[in-house]
Amino acid sequence: MRIISEMDQSSAEVVAEFPERGVHWVKEQVEAVLSETEIYVREKPAQSLMCAFVAGYILNRLPLGRIVGGLLRLLIIALRPAILIYGAAKLYQAAQEE
Questions:
Q1: 55-66, pLDDT tens digit by residue?
Q2: 2 and 43, same structural domain?
Q3: Cβ(48)–Cβ(41) below 8 Å
Q4: What range does the domain containing 48 cover?
Q5: Pair 47, 6 in one domain
Q6: What angle do CA 94, 97, 98 make, to 5 degrees?
Q7: Which burial class, exposed, middle or buried, applies to 48 when counting CB atoms under 10 A from its CB (0-12, 13-18, 19+)?
Q8: What is the pLDDT of residues 10-51, one digit of tens each?
């Protein structure tokens, strides 16, 4: 029984550390991308400026309000069945425990 509780404790520690490690990994990746971007901009300033201008122009022309609104409506529509499935899974789990 003690081995099982130690395994549960070590599993709980791994699960607790997972978000922290994920945040650390994302932070490292963002720093790497920023570093590479800075090097690229210093090496090729004219191309970088042109890329920034084109990206800004495209983003300005996109209907971002409609895109975000559509995504929110899709999320709300998808959330209802997800809540239903979650509730059914919890009921099944409770029935299995009894």
A1: 999 988 888 888
A2: yes
A3: yes
A4: 1-62
A5: yes
A6: 90
A7: middle
A8: 665 666 677 788 888 999 999 999 999 999 999 999 999 999
